[in-house]
Batch of 4 targets.
Target 1
Amino acid sequence: MPLHVRDLGSGPPVVFLHPGPGLDGSVFLPGAQRVADAGYRVLLVDLPGSGRSPAADWTLAGYAEAVEDFVNELGLQDWTLLGHSFGGYVAMQHVVDYATAGRYVASCTDAEEEPAPGVSEDRWDDMPPEVAAAFEREASVSTPEECLEVWRDQLPFFATVPGTRIHYGAGYSGNGVGPSWLGGQILASLALGADDEWSRLPLANRRPPRLPPEPIRYVGGAAVRRAILTVEEADEQGRRAGPIARGIAALPRTLGLRVGTK
């Protein structure tokens, strides 16, 4: 599968895999230019479905296969694979599946790392309950399908109001060149009524569950999140949470909503 790439400099090749999904290889600029100036061939790849690369299999294995096909098409020899954040996970999947790079550098974020100076530790307190629940569900997934559902609940979605010309994106900040470009492509395809690679992306086809109106949604979401945390804390301490907490934590699943872990 052809991947879009920014090819800088000459010398021993270094393939850069960007954070994301939704960003692109340009996030490494201008720093990557210094690597090229130091005598390396820098290849800033847009991973499948991000930047200017077409969508493909939305799994780590699929991404790793796309990277392997890319380096084979270029005939790279004695090359280095460098992945940051999500790109680091793709790099680790590549070493498991192929291990054809001469060197690997994987820089993945760590939930236990110290916050940067000046960054508030309570910056996640205002996270929407359904998004927070999606992150909390990561520890409980057991199948690829459940993993996909959790992942998609952490991503924005784009859609059209039925019977209207209103097209929108929700859960989307628009910060950065990569996300803005991706969101623009999706919205443009929706506005034109096009059936193409952008309108068929999972971000444009996802139909999140309908939740009650405000203020019930906020109050209910906060209660469910608190109950889930209570149940998980009890499990970690080797005891059983009370029936009220267990009942509230199980409420989304009972109603057919894929939020929460219990």
Target 2
Amino acid sequence: MHPLPALSYTIEPGTFPVVMSSVPRLRSWLLLIALAGSLGGCAVYRTWNKCGSGCPGDAALAAEVRARIAEHTELLAPNEVDVRVLDGVVYLSGTVATDLQRDTAAAVARSAAGAARVVDMIGLEYPGW
């Protein structure tokens, strides 16, 4: 076997400070991204702090959305749609078989009186291999 040739690197004058000046810029961007990502958590914390374990009307709204979903047989077993409500915002999670079923569940939740917003986190079942 032949030995690998030796590699040598030289740093040109003036190139090292350019690399160093990009580090603070990168840190600024990372800080900005971290702060932006935490804002959503702040809103949930404020709501939780305001309402504790549930705001007035959340339980009734959740029950209404669950009852409306139960009226749609295509959303029942083997599909699973979980409903949570926090400060009038309806959070849907679980799994369904098709996009149409996911859209139906979101539309049903939006039609409930008192639903300020619907957050659809419903996943689609993977049929297998």
Target 3
Amino acid sequence: MRPAAVSGRLTRVALRCLIVDDSEVFLVSASRRLCAQGLDVVARTSSGAEALQLARQLQPDVALVDVRLGSENGVELAQRLVATAQTTQVILVSSHSKDELGELVADSPTVGFLPKPALCAEAIAELLVTAPRGTPRRRARDDGRRQSSEGEAS
């Protein structure tokens, strides 16, 4: 997080974000939604190799990585991002619930998991605030309280 990224009751969130998902519809809708909520979406991609390159080059505060990334494994990509982009916190996202993904999410070195319907700037900030930088702590927001009418393909 950048200095003063989160203040008070999470009224202002100024995080630099990379989104990695195999659905172009989701990439566009999530970017639009998160930008409207105050995040700086610095890049979005559907490729694991490009995600690694962008994370090293742009050093975002957070990378949102789809668990099921088309022909690639999003959990494996998350592991590589944690190892190579050490200033970037990684959050796994999916249209599936954490319960459906089981051990894949539980065993990952990420700071947490968000189901796509709950994806919002505040939920991201909450996960990052509770996870000290450089110390992955797995938490999940699986309540689906925040529903999006935008595309939520996995």
Target 4
Amino acid sequence: MDQHELKSRCLALPGASEEFPFADEVSVFKVGGKMFALSQLDGEPLQLSVKCDPELAAQLRSAYPAIAPGYHLNKRHWNTITLDGSLADEMVIDLLGITTVAGNQTLPKTTLNARRVCTAAGICVELLTFFAGRYRRVFGFDAPPLHDPVAVARVIDPAMVTTVEANVAVELAGTHTRGATVVDLHGVTGRQPNARVAVGLDADRFWDLIVAAVATLG
């Protein structure tokens, strides 16, 4: 990743802007007035400083030699990444997605509440953001599926998830698809229902349950 792509990636994030409050050669990127990244784009080597949850920041430093405590920044909350080719471009992009969560105070209320519960909740938000960013780039989804958490939520509170009876089958012969799960919601195949399929979710109750569960981690 060169300086031009790095700048483009930073500005491609929703609501991002570029400012120069420190020096003409230092680009500061903000979302909602909050700084989430900065870089001297013509510097050698090319480096990018990003805001991050403190515990996640420390884990990244220990795992990747190219990631160090923030240079001339609060080292608890910032990392500086040297773009020397040792980190895949996709990872740098994902870290930008994480840092905008750390810097953005206009996130949905549920997400902000989760971050404020405890350190573990903050890390969960960072990881979910990483997960969401990857799904958006690879599959084009606006938001990633959370199959297992929703399944567990229904066990805890069945009324949270709306279900219908339908036939579910894995197509192996290629009649409709090949190697994919087919859910016949409209009786097209004529097969008898053999499962209950989730078709609706009380999102507010679901996220309240997730936040409460994470809070028990301390």
